[in-house]
């Protein structure tokens, strides 16, 4: 069973439907006990980092998420959910994240003069070929975000160019993140969700 974490800032229904298409059972839940029992966890997110962290804290979900990861449960963060995996965000001030992957969340440099948010289709450049990235070399995925992650290259599986090399897929051990929306990225997104399904089933 995969638990899609419900903390009132994510597009949980569309993610649930995307997993249905690849025949993976999911439950949308804010129950800490279910999170701790899950075979895999998906942390979605749409909106602002500070509000998301506040919502996780108010619902008592931070400790069970960290405990689940500590016991080896695979976790996938999507869009804002990926950003929450890192140490700190500078969106609307400075906010502490979950600290599961070293790094920080930054605004796009103003000197790039590119439209913000980064919205629409962009190409993936694979940095490290792993089972999660084998099927997506040079493929396009769908983004909607105004901040990006700055982290060490060792954690970056794929990037997209948007004035800076935007970490698109990240990984540290059994913690994964996708800055784009796989549920909106057609067959490429389905291939990535299937790859995460294999991680969970393994």
TrEMBL record:
Main localization category: cytoplasm
A single BP term in Gene Ontology: L-histidine biosynthetic process
A Pfam match: GATase
Catalytic activity as recorded in UniProt: L-glutamine + H2O = L-glutamate + NH4(+); 5-[(5-phospho-1-deoxy-D-ribulos-1-ylimino)methylamino]-1-(5-phospho-beta-D-ribosyl)imidazole-4-carboxamide + L-glutamine = D-erythro-1-(imidazol-4-yl)glycerol 3-phosphate + 5-amino-1-(5-phospho-beta-D-ribosyl)imidazole-4-carboxamide + L-glutamate + H(+)
Keyword annotations of the record: Amino-acid biosynthesis, Cytoplasm, Glutamine amidotransferase, Histidine biosynthesis, Hydrolase, Lyase, Transferase
EC annotation from Swiss-Prot or TrEMBL: 4.3.2.10, 3.5.1.2
CDD domains named among the record's database cross-references: GATase1_IGP_Synthase
Active site (catalytic residues): 79 (nucleophile), 181, 183
Alphabetized Gene3D superfamilies for the sequence: 3.40.50.880
GO CC terms, sorted: cytoplasm
Annotated ranges, domain Glutamine amidotransferase: 3-196
MF terms in GO: glutaminase activity; imidazoleglycerol-phosphate synthase activity; lyase activity
Pathway named in the protein's UniProt entry: Amino-acid biosynthesis; L-histidine biosynthesis; L-histidine from 5-phospho-alpha-D-ribose 1-diphosphate: step 5/9
Oligomeric and partner information: Heterodimer of HisH and HisF.
Main function: IGPS catalyzes the conversion of PRFAR and glutamine to IGP, AICAR and glutamate. The HisH subunit catalyzes the hydrolysis of glutamine to glutamate and ammonia as part of the synthesis of IGP and AICAR. The resulting ammonia molecule is channeled to the active site of HisF.
Name under which the protein is recorded: Imidazole glycerol phosphate synthase subunit HisH
Organism: Enterococcus aquimarinus
Lineage start: Bacteria, Bacillati, Bacillota, Bacilli, Lactobacillales
Name of the gene encoding the protein in the UniProt record: hisH
